[in-house]
Structure formats: structure tokens, C-alpha cells
Write a structure and sequence with these properties.
The complex is a heterodimer of chains A (373) and B (386). By secondary structure, chain A is α+β, with helices and mostly antiparallel strands. Chain A has three domains: 113 residues, Acyl-CoA dehydrogenase/oxidase, N-terminal domain (Butyryl-Coa Dehydrogenase, subunit A, domain 1), CATH 1.10.540.10; 104 residues, Butyryl-CoA Dehydrogenase, subunit A, domain 2 (Beta Barrel); 142 residues, Up-down Bundle (Butyryl-CoA Dehydrogenase, subunit A, domain 3), CATH 1.20.140.10. In chain A, the strands form three sheets. Chain A has a four-stranded mixed sheet with strand order 1-4-5-8. In chain A, helix 9 runs antiparallel to helix 11. The longest helix of chain A has 37 residues. Chain A is globular, with a radius of gyration of 20 Å. In chain A, 55% of the residues are buried. Chain B is an alpha+beta fold and 386 residues long. Chain B has three domains: 103 residues, Butyryl-Coa Dehydrogenase, subunit A, domain 1 (Orthogonal Bundle), CATH 1.10.540; 107 residues, Butyryl-CoA Dehydrogenase, subunit A, domain 2; 141 residues, Butyryl-CoA Dehydrogenase, subunit A, domain 3 (Up-down Bundle), CATH 1.20.140. Helices cover 42% and strands 14% of the residues of chain B. In chain B, the strands form two sheets. In chain B, strands 1-4-5-8 form a four-stranded mixed sheet. In chain B, a hairpin with an 8-residue loop joins strand 6 and strand 7. In chain B, helix 1 crosses helix 3, helix 6 runs parallel beside helix 9 and helix 9 runs antiparallel to helix 10. The longest helix of chain B has 29 residues. Classes of the chains: A alpha+beta (373), B alpha+beta (386). Chains A and B meet through helix 7, strand 10, helix 8, helix 9 and helix 11 of A and helix 8, helix 9 and helix 11 of B. Chain A: This is Alkylation response protein AidB-like acyl-CoA dehydrogenase. Chain A: InterPro entries: Acyl-CoA_Oxase/DH_mid-dom, Acyl-CoA_Oxase/DH_mid-dom_sf, AcylCo_DH-like_C, AcylCo_DH/oxidase_C, AcylCoA_DH/ox_N, AcylCoA_DH/ox_N_sf, AcylCoA_DH/oxidase_NM_dom_sf.
Chain lengths: 373, 386
């Protein structure tokens, strides 16, 4: 059945009010931004995620987690998107967990993630556009381990991270899938320089410089030169999750806009009574419903380990990205002048959408590849 | 679940034995479909046998109750049957407006006598139905219809004209909206069933821009309709009409799937030559088509669970038909001047171009895209009236 089952619906019924209350814009996004918080999110909320079993949502019950799947993680992410809740959930609880599960690194980091204390960051992109196969950062064998040289950008929550999952090239050349190795690099590694960057949506994403950073062989996640499969697994979870967050962003912006259409009066009547706006609103609503269905499909296929999971994950990220872009553009336009003010929340949706659109590949990347890469 | 697996195994074996190789080849057009009816000419013995075998089990309408000619299958059994048919590429045994439109309305609003009289012959493909809704002056504003039905005691006397009546020239019976009162616009409409061979009924095909003539004008000149052929109550036909339109829109929205779910990607199937903009549009289309495929699956599962919003078929109809128009725009572009051949064997008598033009009606028939958006805006988004 391509709809939430009873347990998933119950999870939604719990998470929706939680996020609308404790994760709301006023007390999280706007609050931390106005305080100039260098992490861009509240560690207290991340611990609340731990108490509710959300930060360990994908971690097996045997390791203290909730042992749930992508569909459940996506339920949480849609609510995060709807409230623009800043948290390390997507990078840490979803993407990083999928990167290290089944490896010795899981034993080290899962307990802290379950508690909502540990933060992980993905250090993958090297240029302004997502291109995993193009990874060029050098991993040179030396002694018992490797020496890393190169730079990374768009490392979301880099400053707060306890460790980085770093993709580097131990063999082959840029553009090839073979020869990529994943490393777990601790925050305090010698030779690792971090520049904390604030993005348009006031989230934080570091630029990292690796200058002769020496790591032991046991820093390797999975196989040397064989990081692609783990990276794919992690990115598939991250992309499907990002798609769900984008659906939430679209739905949140749309809900705000639809309320406004029903309340705002010009020419003596509600602006939502004008057909020009009604048709645009109905079109947008229809697109959001389609994007949500596509995203649910991707999540289900991932949980079933189905052969079409890659393709539908690409469809979900591309569709949700395009729809969310339309949603925030329509939201700002339909709000008129008030939508241009910092005081109003609608602009936050536009900024967050732009960041999530790029994260783990923009719509055109996924439309071109459709899961083939 | 164990029962389902038994059912699946039995169904697979039965289909294997009863569905001939010819009935497992894809239909090339609507002309290959089996429409049934008094005057239907079967294309082959295989087509006739397939219909008879499926109708014999009630599987032309697997989820209708068996006392009305259906298969009496549960939702999960119906799904299994469809999956097993899809797995061997089995054709739909019967394409019929009786199944997709009138049947569901009769099941909900018909009297017991009407159900027993009409449903089994729909299930067996014996009577072909057409739909008398639109009129020259009542298109998007359907409830403005003027075809009159006067009460003459034991019968109604019907006078007026319908338009865009799909396949009226080949249909045996019509389900028809008529005006029985001028007191109220929506509250003066009734829903009648009558034989197209009744004295006073005539039809004239309308040639479309595609060259096809799937639609007719239909004229009624003092047509007598017995009173027991009124569905639901007099002046309550709009309720039936709206319910039926929901089913019609669901059916039309299926066009967005491009005939068969999971069909190949346009970006892989078509040669784009050195046109990167076309390649980009195909890639974008594939994303939207696969996303809509997921939406269709989601919508059907919600319908079965009784969780779909009553206005959701409008959303599906809008999205599905707009997508289908885009598909055919792309097929035409990818075909270049080959696709513009209108009368030639190479082009199968202009199939690409004619199909392209035919799809332009998708977002008009069954309520225009603009009407659907208006319904979504009003009933789902609760936007105020203009």
C-alpha cells in the first residue's frame, strides 16, 4: 500500500505536534539566528530528539535505537521541513548512520547519536555543484594508514560535528566510481582547518581544508577503494530524506499562503476569491501532493531494498526540489509586500528551499541521472 | 495472506489457460479494444473467447458483487488479478463506459430492479453505453443544460440536443442528464437511462482536428422514456452526475500513465539527436511521469481505504491529462518531420500527429483543467467564492 500504515500514522501524530511546538520558527530558527548561534541549531532540541527516540530512528534496537526505516525517518523530516526546524537530523541520524552502519564505526558513534549528543557531518562536495563521482581529494597511503590532502565545502553542521565522513580518492581518477574511500575523521585531526560559513538560510556549513592530515587504517569506513557502495547507500537515504524535508518546506509555505489567501482583503474581498490566484494555488497543491507520493514511494522502495529504489529516490529529490521551488516562489509573491519583510516567516521558506535544493544534488542532477549514477 | 497466495496461484494458472497469445499483445489504439454491445464486431475469435471467459467468472468487473455479474473479489484479490494480468500483458477484456462510469453510479443510486436489469449485461459486454451530458450551451457550465423531459404520466417525453457524446453512433443505450424543473438550476436535473433505438433519437459524428470522430451530436425529438428508467429521484440527478463524473475523471487521469504503468522512459526511448533542450525536457518529463505514477498508486490505495477527498479525482484528472498532453508534445518534437506525416503507410496513417491532436481534448472532456482547478480550490483549499 502506497500510504502510511497505522504505526507510521501514529508516529506522525506524535511528531507533528512535537515539531510544531518545540521545533517552531520562533523558538528555533529565528531564535538561534538572532542570537548569532555559531552552530545554527539548539543542542537542547537535539537531545529532545534523543529522548523521543528520533535521533536513533534508523539505528537498530540492539544498539539502543528505534530500529525503524526510511519511511519513518521521512515522516520526521517532513515535519522538520514544515517548521524549518534546524537540527542535525538529516545529516547525522539519516545520512551518517547509513554510511557507518555495519562497520566498526557504528559501535563508536551510535550511542552518542541515540542520545542526541553526537553530531556527524558529511564532507563530500568539492565544488559548488554536487558530484560524488568527481571526488578528487587525495588519500595517499602512508605507513599503516592514509594521508589526506584537499578541500571540501558545503559540509553541513561542520563546526558542530564530532566527526566527519570524508570521501577521498585512494585510487582511479576523478569521474570514476572506483577508487573512492570513505573515512571517519575526528574533529580534532591535526592539519584539518575549518572555516565556519553561514548560509543564506542562516544554517551553518563549513569549508574544510585538509593539509597532510594523517589517519590510521581503522579510519577507513568499509573497503579501501570501495567506498562507492556505502556512499550510495548513505546518499540514497540522505536524498530521500532531503526530498521529504522539501515536501515539508513546500507544504509549510503553502499552508501559510493558503491561510493568507483566505484572510487578506483587497478590492473589498478576500484575494483568494480571485480565480487567477485560485488556479495557481490549486496547481501548486496538486504538485505538492504528487511530490509527497513520489517521496513516499522512494522511501518504501528503499526499505524494501527494491531494485527501483535508486531511480525513485532520484525522482523524489528532483520532483520535491522543483515543487518546493515553485511553492516558495508562489508563497512570497502571493504574500505581496509583507512577504519581503524579515519580520514575516515566509521568506525563511524561500531561503531554506534554496539550500535544500542543492544539498545532495539539485533537481537537474537527478533528472539527468535518474538513479543511474 | 495465505489465502491471497492461493488465489494468486489459481488466478495465474487460470489466466495461463484462458488468455490466448493474441490477447497478450499490446493494443495499438482504441480500435483494438473490445467495446462490446449489440452491434460490436469482434476483431477475432480470440477477442470473443477472452471476453466470454473473463465475463464467465465476473472478472470484467472483478470487484462488483457476484449477484450483478461481478467477480465478488475483495480489494486485495482484485489487485492480485490486475497484477497477474499485467504480468502476462493480458488485454483488458472489455472497455466500457458502463463499467467505468454508469456501473458505479447504479450500484450507489440504482433501485434493486435497475441493478438486476442493467448491471449483468454491462458485465457481459452485451450493452454498450454512452454518456449524454454536455450540450451546445452547457459545457463547463454543465448544470445549465436545457434538454427537457416532460412528465407524461407513465413516461417522460425528452426533447433537446447533446454534444460531445462519446461513441453515440455505436452505443446501444444512453445515460442522460435532462431538465425536469426550471425552479432550480442544479435541483432541476434528472438522470435517465434509455435505448438509443427509441424513436426520435438520432446522432451525427463530429470530425475532430485529429481526423478521428470519437464524439457525436445527439438529438432527441419526442423520445418516450418509461418512468422506471429514472435513476435516483426526480430532480436529484445532479447528485448522480457528480458521483459519476468522479469516476470518469479517475478513468481519464489514468492517461497520465501513458497506457501502461512502469512504461519505459521517454529520455531512453526517443532519439534526441543534437537537441539538448529536447533532452532536458524529456528528462524533466520522465521525473514528472514517474512521480505521477506514484501519485496514481497512492490515490488508488487511499480510495480503497476510503481516505481520498471527494474532490481528489479532479486533481488526478488535471494532473494526468496535462501530463499526457506534454507526453505527446514531446513525441511530436522528437519525431521531427517524420511525425508530421498524416497519410502514409510509414507513419501508420499519421498516428503520432493524430494522437497528439487527440490529446488536446483530454484537458477539455470530462471538465476542463480550469474547472478541475476551481473544484480543488473550492472544496479542498476552501478558498472563498468569486
Amino acid at each position: 500500500m502506497l500510504k502510511l500504515n497505522d504505526d507510521q500514522q501514529m508516529l506522525l501524530d506524535t511528531v507533528r505536534p512535537f515539531m510544531a511546538d518545540e521545533g517552531r520558527i520562533e523558538t528555533q530558527l529565528r531564535h538561534w539566528r538572532d542570537k548569532g548561534c555559531p552552530d545554527g541549531f539548539g543542542h537542547g532540541l537535539w537531545e529532545r530528539f534523543g529522548q523521543l527516540g528520533l535521533s536513533g530512528i534508523l539505528i537498530p534496537e540492539s544498539a539502543g535505537g528505534s530500529g525503524l526505516g526510511q519511511v519513518e525517518a521521512n515522516v520526521v523530516l517532513e515535519e522538520i521541513g514544515r517548521n524549518l526546524t534546524p537540527s542535525p537530523f538529516l545529516t547525522t541520524a539519516v545520512t551518517a548512520v547509513r554510511a557507518i552502519e555495519g562497520t566498526p564505526h557504528a559501535e563508536r558513534w551510535f550511542p552518542g547519536i541515540v542520545e542526541g549528543k553526537t553530531v556527524a557531518a558529511i564532507a563530500l562536495d568539492e565544488g559548488p555543484r554536487h558530484d560524488p563521482a568527481g571526488t578528487a581529494m587525495e588519500a595517499r597511503r602512508s605507513g599503516n594508514g592514509f594521508t589526506l590532502n584537499g578541500s571540501k565545502q558545503f559540509v553541513v553542521h561542520g563546526r558542530s560535528a564530532d566527526f566527519f565522513i570524508v570521501a577521498a580518492r585512494s585510487g582511479g581518477s576523478a569521474g570514476e566510481r572506483e577508487g573512492i574511500t570513505l573515512f571517519a575523521v575526528p574533529r580534532d585531526a591535526k592539519g584539518l582547518e575549518l572555516e565556519n560559513v553561514t548560509l543564506a538560510d542562516s544554517s551553518k556549513a563549513a569549508r574544510l581544508d585538509f593539509d597532510e592530515v594523517a589517519v590510521d587504517a581503522d579510519a577507513v569506513i568499509g573497503e579501501v577503494d570501495g567506498g562507492w557502495n556505502l556512499l550510495r547507500r548513505a546518499l540514497r537515504a540522505g536524498r530521500a530524506g532531503a526530498a521529504s524535508e522539501l515536501v515539508g518546506i513546500a507544504a509549510g509555505a503553502f499552508a501559510m499562503t493558503n491561510d493568507y489567501l483566505r484572510e487578506r482583503k483587497q478590492f473589498g474581498r478576500e484575494i483568494g476569491s480571485f480565480q487567477a490566484l485560485q488556479h495557481r494555488a490549486a496547481h501548486l497543491y496538486s504538485e505538492i501532493e504528487i511530490a509527497r507520493a513520489a517521496t513516499l514511494k522512494a522511501a518504501q522502495l528503499i526499505d524494501e531494498e527494491h531494485g527501483d529504489a535508486e531511480r525513485f529516490t532520484a525522482v523524489a529529490k528532483a520532483k520535491a526540489g522543483s515543487v518546493a521551488r515553485l511553492a516558495v516562489q508562489e508563497a512570497v509573491q502571493m504574500h505581496g509586500g509583507i512577504g519581503m519583510t524579515d519580520e514575516h516567516d515566509v521568506g525563511f521558506y524561500m531561503k531554506r528551499q534554496a539550500v535544500m535544493d542543492e544539498l545532495f544534488g539539485r533537481p537537474s542532477f537527478h533528472a539527468r541521472h535518474l538513479g543511474k549514477d | 495472506m495465505a489465502d491471497d497466495e492461493t488465489f494468486r496461484a489459481e488466478t495465474r494458472a487460470w489466466l495461463e489457460a484462458n488468455c490466448s497469445p493474441e490477447m497478450r499483445t499490446p493494443m495499438r489504439s482504441e480500435k483494438d479494444a473490445c467495446w462490446g454491445g449489440r452491434n460490436f464486431k469482434f476483431a477475432s475469435d480470440a477477442q470473443r473467447q477472452w471476453l466470454e471467459a473473463m465475463a464467465g467468472r465476473g472478472w470484467t468487473v472483478p470487484d462488483w458483487p457476484s449477484e450483478y455479474g461481478g467477480g465478488g473479489l475483495s480489494p486485495s484479490e482484485t489487485k492480485i488479478l490486475k497484477e497477474e494480468m499485467a504480468a502476462i500483458g493480458a488485454r483488458v477484456p472489455l472497455t466500457s463506459f458502463g463499467i467505468s462510469m454508469l456501473g458505479p453510479a447504479l450500484l450507489k443510486y440504482g433501485t434493486e430492479a435497475q441493478k438486476q436489469r442493467f448491471l449483468p449485461e454491462i458485465a457481459r459486454g452485451e450493452i454498450r453505453w454512452c454518456q449524454g451530458y454536455s450540450e451546445p450551451g452547457a459545457g463547463s457550465d454543465l448544470a445549465g443544460l436545457q434538454t427537457r423531459a416532460e412528465d407524461k404520466g407513465d413516461h417522460y417525453l425528452v426533447n433537446g440536443q447533446k454534444v460531445w457524446t462519446s461513441y453515440a453512433d455505436e452505443a446501444d443505450w444512453i445515460f442522460c442528464l435532462v431538465r425536469t424543473s426550471n425552479e432550480s438550476k442544479h435541483g432541476g436535473i434528472s438522470f435517465l437511462l434509455f435505448d438509443m433505438e427509441s424513436p426520435g433519437v438520432s446522432t451525427r459524428p463530429i470530425k475532430l482536428i485529429s481526423g478521428y470522430s470519437p464524439f457525436c451530436e445527439t438529438f432527441f425529438d419526442n423520445v418516450k422514456v418509461p418512468k422506471d428508467q429514472l435513476v435516483h429521484e426526480e430532480n436529484k440527478g445532479w447528485t448522480v452526475a457528480k458521483y459519476l463524473l468522479g469516476h470518469e475523471r479517475e478513468m481519464i487521469s489514468g492517461m497520465g500513465l501513458g497506457g501502461s504503468a512502469g512504461s519505459s522512459l521517454l529520455s531512453e526511448a526517443l532519439d534526441v539527436g543534437d537537441d539538448p533542450l529536447l533532452a532536458a525536457d524529456l528528462a524533466r518529463f520522465d521525473v514528472d511521469a514517474l512521480a505521477f505514477q506514484a501519485m496514481s498508486e497512492h490515490f488508488i490505495d487511499k480510495l480503497k481505504a476510503g481516505e481520498a477527498h471527494p474532490a481528489e479525482p479532479s486533481l488526478m484528472k488535471y494532473a494526468g491529462t496535462e501530463l499526457n498532453k506534454r507526453r505527446h508534445e514531446l513525441l511530436l518534437r522528437a519525431g521531427g518531420s517524420d511525425a508530421l506525416e498524416w497519410e502514409s503507410e510509414r507513419s501508420r496513417e499519421g498516428k503520432t500527429a493524430r494522437d497528439w491532436l487527440r490529446t488536446k481534448a483530454n484537458s477539455i472532456e470530462g471538465g476542463t483543467s480550469e474547472i478541475q482547478l476551481g473544484i480543488v480550490a473550492k472544496h479542498i483549499l476552501q478558498l472563498p467564492g468569486a
